[in-house]
Amino acid sequence: MSLIEDKFAKLDTEHAPGQEGRLVSGMAVGIGDTLGGTPVDFSHGDVNPAAFAPPPTALEAFIAGEARGGSQAYTEYRGDRTLRGILSERLSLFTGKELDGENELILTPGTQGALFLAIASCVVAGDKVAIMRPDYFANRKLVEFLGAETVPVEMDYLNTKEGSGICLDQLEAAFKAGAKTFLFSNPNNPTGVVYSAAEITQIASLANRYGSTVIVDQLYSRLLYSGVNYTHLRATDIDTNNVVTIMGPSKTESLSGYRLGVAFGAKHLIARMEKLQAIVSLRAPGYCQAVFNTWFAEPDGWIEERIRQHQSIRDDLLGIFLAVPGINVRPPEAGSYLFPQLPKLSVPLYDFLAFLRSQAAVTVTPGTEFSPNHTDSIRLNFSQNHSAAVHAVERIAGLVDRYRA
Amino acid sequence: MSLIEDKFAKLDTEHAPGQEGRLVSGMAVGIGDTLGGTPVDFSHGDVNPAAFAPPPTALEAFIAGEARGGSQAYTEYRGDRTLRGILSERLSLFTGKELDGENELILTPGTQGALFLAIASCVVAGDKVAIMRPDYFANRKLVEFLGAETVPVEMDYLNTKEGSGICLDQLEAAFKAGAKTFLFSNPNNPTGVVYSAAEITQIASLANRYGSTVIVDQLYSRLLYSGVNYTHLRATDIDTNNVVTIMGPSKTESLSGYRLGVAFGAKHLIARMEKLQAIVSLRAPGYCQAVFNTWFAEPDGWIEERIRQHQSIRDDLLGIFLAVPGINVRPPEAGSYLFPQLPKLSVPLYDFLAFLRSQAAVTVTPGTEFSPNHTDSIRLNFSQNHSAAVHAVERIAGLVDRYRA
């Protein structure tokens, strides 16, 4: 295999969420009948009106942006200056720490764009990067694309009541071994756990001690369930030159179709990210940038109602999963992911997922996308029509019983 | 300087088009009075109604896309399947060669996104990549970001009447020296020259002989002036596994604010590009993708009228430049760029450009963005309001005389 073939083999998207349509059906034949019901694609949230549509003001903001013409189409590579001013105030308020919109903030094509730019601005080939297991599936691939080496840090989320269960000794060992960058999501994707204040404080203090940069993906930090305390890493005493925070309106706010994200933090890293964005995609789509005007400025009560609806779906789905013998799941404290661990099955995980699609009209993402250890887990994005999601999870429970080892 | 500092120093955007607002003013003091007139920013096209607005159907197509909801927001990473089917037919007709929309086409965030993905899918650190001088400023930076080495190929556009004046001996020498990738724009950015049929045929035959991949950026291939013949590289006898063509509706069609581009060609390279897109920006903005429905389907006569208007501006600006002693310029055969070579000035190029901004309200891009040899040239994107462009070029002519050495 040539160098470049090897490089791209590591970026395989065959089982990535949303790519199921490109999967070539396997030979495996399922047992028993098809279960009827509304098809549900748990690989991503449903942004249709019957589930969770964008805020009503988003499209208007886009149309107003298009009408502004050239100044909105051709912004600086880091994004429209006026918008960066507005967003820096809102993000400063949200995270509890001052933010300079002129130098410490960049608008990107989605949080995926922000993640790529942030990592590529910290890491060169041969570097070591600490990443969590499990965590967002692209993290590992980003590090590998850059020719860097991942140093995994485990989290014992299933046996932890408060916080993520991150193994801080492993994180310190990674820093000691030379990892100068640590990348993690909080709330964690795929488990929905929120790191405790103590964990975040200790991450900050380890980063300061070893002079490491921390990139924290806070994509779901607005969707917190009742009673959950959230600690913003950037508001701790972490060295401000060593932290970049990533967010975006694609999930809680259902604005994925506009491809918008932000990264904010260390000025020298934001400057690098802009240079790189200039050659990767020029800028976040100009007219779409205008939709940021509506972010953190949704109609009164809109976010609260959205959280309430997600919490109610979460509770119903948890109830179904927990009634199935052998299924183990941590109740998510934030976001819209469930990451149940399944009992031992009579078929391999990818076959089981193919049966879920063909026999139950349900699409989920295999745990192996998030960690090589999680061959027994599946991820569901439950930002779906409530009743369709409940019936789909009942079908999953049915097939778990059917294919139980 | 650390490895990563060095890497990003090569990606400097200080003098890149559109970034002039971030330039810190120098100390140089200009001679004489300020010249009055409508400010013109020639660093990019003007998409406002007084100049060249998007086709009237674009916004409607976006709104229809948004209304489709989830299926338009969450397409495959390579873009919406139905749209790829539609576009493959239109691009096949346009380029004169069959195209399989399922496997040979990817939708990207702008042609910038397509360029990045295409190069990164062909090149690993240490490789050699042949690029033209002059050519689009990002080409060199993309190669350097990947840790590869550029092998420059010159073109004698000022002394060539038909075709670009590419030095095919240099291209062959680059291939002999191990360059497995050749990247060029046709029509050329910044000069507006179109490669002759003989040149394109010889590029194809050299690529076949040395087994090299050619990435051809055809961004301006719809905006051809009267009497110009255009040869699509992919329609020659070049090995179809070794060619990727890049286009997009950002320029001629003024749709830059939607961030849309396409790459089409070798199936294995398109597959790599999709894997990389998945971690760099996920996909071209979903709702924006719907605007592709209007591409190559503009209202009757719309493109023809647009070409006519650009040709008329081109002729007027050429007339002004050619009347200035010492200015040398090749009449562009396509696109909306002029790349005049200026006479020897009494001040360095960057100071002259600063005086153009402060004394003449005119922004242009320095030739050094396109080739280190072009310290005496400037690029103008003349997709502007006709009369404002004429008066702005008269002011440029005035300052050339004022600062003549």
From TrEMBL, chains A, B:
Keywords: Aminotransferase, Pyridoxal phosphate, Transferase. GO terms for molecular function: transaminase activity. Residues 46-396 form the Aminotransferase class I/classII large domain. InterPro entries: Aminotransferase_I/II_large (IPR004839), AspAT/PAT-like (IPR050596), PyrdxlP-dep_Trfase (IPR015424), PyrdxlP-dep_Trfase_major (IPR015421), PyrdxlP-dep_Trfase_small (IPR015422). It holds the Pfam family Aminotran_1_2. Its EC number is 2.6.1.-. Its cofactor is pyridoxal 5'-phosphate. The keyword Transferase applies. CDD domains: AAT_like (cd00609). Belongs to the class-I pyridoxal-phosphate-dependent aminotransferase family. This is Pyridoxal phosphate-dependent aminotransferase.
